[in-house]
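Technical annex B. To support the medicinal chemistry partners, we prepared a structural model of the target in complex with adenosine-5-diphosphoribose, based solely on the information shown next.
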Amino acid sequence: MTERQTNRTVEETADVVILGAGPAGLTLGNLLHAAGIDCVVLERADRAHVQTRARAGFLAANTVRVLDRHGLAAGLHRRGQPHGTCEFRTENGSFRLDYGALGRRELHTVYPQQDLVDDLLTHYLEAGGRIAFGTEAQSVRDAAGPNPTVDVRDAEGRPGRWRARYVAGCDGRHGAARRSLPAGTLRHQRDHGVSWLGLIAEAPPSLDAVGYAMHPDGFAGHMARTADITRYYLQCERGTPADAWSEDRIWAALDRRMGAAEHGPLRHGRILQRSVIDLESDVVEPLRHGSLLLAGDAASLPAPAAAKGANLAVLEAELLAEALVDELSHDDSRALDRYSERCLQHIWRAQEFAHWMIQLLHSPLLNPTAGPAEESFFHESMRRARVESLRTSRTHQDWFAENYVGI
Ligand code: APR
């Protein structure tokens, strides 16, 4: 009779238990495993779901550098597309910014997140890394001490426990790591009062640039994902059900807001995936609670207006890996002691730029939380001046490029 059949809680150990197999958890797992650190990744979903879940796909230059440094970038070099142009469309005309030739002259790489996650997972498993799929972390205990534990349930609902030296919470905004934080933890939150209908369309990109349309009806966005798949965003009213808009209505709104009459038709196609995104941001502070450390969306959620989420996740994973290797292999805790402060510098910079982008792309006249009308008109006029400055000022364009690609 095995321990499992008796339903007794099985306890397993690892020096580092990583919660979540997203960009943060898998980057961390690869780096720790390569450094000879005994680690395990616990992932609630099954392997197929992790490898096929379509999310972001706009990698910053720094993310490519980090992945290159650790031999994890072969896939994105083979199939990723360099990207360096934005097109802003307003009712008063449009302008393009070749941001790859501005600021630090850095480019994005368009590479679907599910492909990146698949690469990271394959590399981790081929290197002999440990991962338990279908294993949901319930809570992290005793993180104040040197031997935290993670209570889990496996795919059959059986309880288990992992004992560790450190727990890395890379399980997102609603994961067990966040739920296990001590009461006094700060959570800075902001609701930007804007919602988007996020769409994945089975249609080739219609622009050779990221398209940002600021239309009186609301914002619309166009981002290439692959040669056959395009990501679109449509500003919608808060509380709009994801299936409320018919495909015809979606394409009519996209055509109108993107100015198809003036700039040429958009290439239509079947809507493969849709979701409503309320633009919210939050930041947990500090990111370390004894032996529990946060990275990725578990640490902070930047509103998706500036493609910072996955890029912060990879940056934080490298900083955390370096700090844990110093501590566990060289008994040097200096980097671990500075981990939270170092990440928060990048996080707040990303939050500041995401907030600036939201203010640029969305008219306060359409935002019910923007305050009284006269104030909204004032903000709207400032917003238009900001767009005009971005169109005409080289200094502003350099600043934009540095923060748009930088992390
Ligand atoms: N136990 C185990 N795994 C969990 C739990 C749990 N309690 N809760 C969530 N998970 C898993 C999810 O199934 C997911 O695979 O944690 C993983 C978190 O991965 P992501 O959400 O991709 O988060 P992260 O690695 O921080 O990357 C964040 O990537 O998707 C982009 O833009 C997005 O900003 C986001 C960034």
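Notes passed to the chemistry partners:
The first strand starts at residue 10 and ends at 19.
Residues 151 and 161 are 5 Å apart (CA to CA).
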